[in-house]
Amino acid sequence: MSSDARFKEAAIALGYSFDGEIRIGGNYVPLLRDGNTIHVSGQIPRVENEIVVTGAAGEQVDLARAQIGAKICIMRALALLQRSLGSLERVKAVPSISVFVQSARHFTQQSEVADGASELLFKILGPAGAHARTSVGVYQLPKNATVEISLLATVE
Amino acid sequence: MSSDARFKEAAIALGYSFDGEIRIGGNYVPLLRDGNTIHVSGQIPRVENEIVVTGAAGEQVDLARAQIGAKICIMRALALLQRSLGSLERVKAVPSISVFVQSARHFTQQSEVADGASELLFKILGPAGAHARTSVGVYQLPKNATVEISLLATVE
Amino acid sequence: MSSDARFKEAAIALGYSFDGEIRIGGNYVPLLRDGNTIHVSGQIPRVENEIVVTGAAGEQVDLARAQIGAKICIMRALALLQRSLGSLERVKAVPSISVFVQSARHFTQQSEVADGASELLFKILGPAGAHARTSVGVYQLPKNATVEISLLATVE
What we know:
The structure is a homotrimer. By secondary structure, chain A is of the alpha+beta class. The first copy, chain A, has helices spanning 3-14, 63-85, 110-125, and strands spanning 31-34, 37-43, 46-47, 50-51, 93-102, 132-138, 147-154. Chain A has one domain: CATH 3.30.1330.40. Chain A is built from 3 helices and 7 strands; from the N terminus they run αββββαβαββ. Chain A has a 5-stranded mixed beta sheet. In chain A, helix 3 (110-125) links the parallel strand 5 (93-102) and strand 6 (132-138). Chains in contact: A-B, A-C, B-C. The A-B interface holds A 25-32, 34, 37, 39-42, 98, 100, 102, 138-144, 148, 150 and B 37, 93, 95-98, 103-112, 114-115, 118-119, 122, 130-139, 152, 154.
């Protein structure tokens, strides 16, 4: 099964469609290619016009729901890559991802939130989805999103 | 008009001079070149010895003032690049910028703050100023700065 | 004296051993090589199973202790590089480090905390340890760690 087929499966499993416009909230580009490296801008769990996971993890949002937020960020990043490259099969590696989790003061499971993102990358991209990772707990995120994820991808 | 001339215009519009020493606050280098990529250290809105925009956005600092802080961070980064390269015309791309905004709990306009930075990059560098972007809301920044921005630039 | 010998000296000075397993807290890889660049995942001050510096800087943790936390993060990153490369002598540059400091609201010495990391990189790696740096104050970190540091290293 191709990574594109696995992407479609993951979207169905999450219950969201990533076929619409991938909106971004400002005056920049969603991804920028520099040689064989593609910088993907920070993605929040937005589907169409709605931010579907908002609030602080450990307060308004539990771990399971924050993980879904992380998965939606990854799906958006992959949708952007798929449209830009034609197919996710062209992604050769994801050298690093940065996971920012809007956190309550005593919420210390940022790594566990990020695991939602990591698992999905491995599931969809296979070995090409292996990545270095940094997860931190921030005070607030654009549009009150629970999670924001940026990443690097490489193509041949 | 060259990007260097547009840089000078932007400094006048902001009302600050970036001709003095660009001080940094620690034991590291302001920029580091690795092949054709230049890593620019996190810049806060410091002009000479003074941090000119301090406090949390949404609390002590409104959106418009935070955007000015973001612009000053970008001017510092560009001043460093200009001195290192001789001219901003040598900057071929700005693959990514990271924008950290000291935020009040309910301040969710980190993207709008970052737009101040993005607009200035486009204005001064033209198409070479297009960039991927990540904006998050942090709890505190060095010297109580309202904004901190790091970026990558590439030369031929 | 080689960088490996200086690494050993620094471990003795800190009073911790970095010979054991370098555990990471999630479903990702501790470092990922992309061409000549190695992305090192965010490191917290964990030695074996214990996070040895926890809590917010400026509250439960003073500056000196937070700097020790930063040093342990760097030791872990260097231990990972040493195991992967065989010797730290193969590290040619550390283009950038990102330092996330769990901060009390009024703690603004994130740069000073990061200086602990920067000094150790210079001390162990010599000129190859020069780096661009970004330091910010976050609200919380995985496992209540006081500091988290990610970095890039290059080999020939």
